[in-house]
Amino acid sequence: RMCANDRILCHEEFCRFAKDYPAKMERSNILGRLHDSYAHLDPETVFEEARREEVCPFEVQLEVAQRADAIVADYNYVFEPAAALRHLTGEDLREAILLIDEAHNLPDRARQIFSPEILEADLANLRNRLLLQLGELFQDLASSVEELLEILAQKAEELPEDAANAIVEVEPPSEAVFTLRVAWEEKLMRYLAWKRETRIALVDDPVLEFHFSLQRFAAVLANFGPDFTCVVERRPSGLRLAIVCLDPARA
């Protein structure tokens, strides 16, 4: 655990470790001190040094990683689109050497990483929660969730009507999802501004969870090719739209 805030809220209005982060980093010279004082850095060392300077330990660790000659980390810090270290993506990755322990587990893990799903039950629950709130902002947020539900329903039209449980391959709804994501970004900014003004902090914010799910789904859609398929499924719990990575080699 690399969060020093007991509420795990990454916003300067709620976390003193995020507040004035750039200024405190420059004033403390923590990166230079860590480099000069330790032959290698483990999470506990970074955590204690960062907490002492009242800066975010997780962000410090990310910055330290960019200066490191070697990094020991989980697969997802290289292969997960939403979690990959900034300097281990795209062309910069060509300058790195990856030594992968337990490499025989990587194909299955990579298939999981690149196989996001959208569940009707989760979307319906979020839409209903948003509609209980007063104000145009929450109506707009709910409308985006409703749009994704409609995308899911349109793809479900290809399912056989007489089967309680069924799954079929469908064309990925790329353009619809990309268009939705662009419109969603502006609404999310308004929501974050509202949170800041009202100083309302939710540890498990369902709106942010929706945002990250949408971003991940769109990121994998952008990489869609013959090594992927898209399926829609009808379950007793509701509809499911999923991108399935068949061969993770290219990704």
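Next protein, fold it too.
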Amino acid sequence: MRLLISFMCVVVIALPTKARELDVVVGWNKPPYVISQEHSGFEIDLVRAILAEMGHTLSPIYVPFGRTARLLEDKAVDIGLTQNAAHNLDDSVLSDPYIIYQNVVVTKAQNNFVINEVSDLKSKRVIAFQTAQSVLGEEFKAALALEPMYMEMARQDRQVDMLMLDHVDAIVLDRNIFNHFRSRNSAYAEKETVFHELFPISAYCAAIPDPELREKFNAALHRFIADGRYQLLLDEYQLDNLLHKLPKELAAL
């Protein structure tokens, strides 16, 4: 009888973490990364697939970007997406980077604009994403603060339209968001554009306070990257793979 009890204890200890539905905080609609009305987008589909491999399901909770840290601190959710060291979080809860964003200046190739630094945007008609002056650094803010032809716009699909229709000279937005909205209009297919890479990449992680869950998430993420499933999902959404732009110490994680 004693042997049977000992064996049963070993079996219980060896069982994997119980499968459960995980509450995952996601930012509001941001195609192609987050398409909230369809509960899809690259980020949601990737994390859903990773959690499924771990035996869990994903329950998305859409909130304004700044509320994620508070929900995690209050232990009201299990995971927060699109986080990094710049947010109001303890770095120790962050997973390995799972996605890279990169804001770029986009112009039409036919205009032959030379834009090697932010100051080259002066005197041009420029539309940036909303809050760009707050997040793209002091140099960008100073260069465009007094430019009468500079504006910011919440609807990024309209940014793309205005560039392609020659209503502006340049737009500033994430390169994959540009590619997404451009691909939705066949009339834009023949119009060549140029990416001017003036801004650094932004690597984003999942905030996962539970260390066991975080470790398993990291392991599954790296399997997805290594076996090609990550690239297949990027291809599905027609996104550029920017993981190679990570610093070596992060790329090796």
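About the second fold: Residues 118 and 140 are 6 Å apart (CA to CA).
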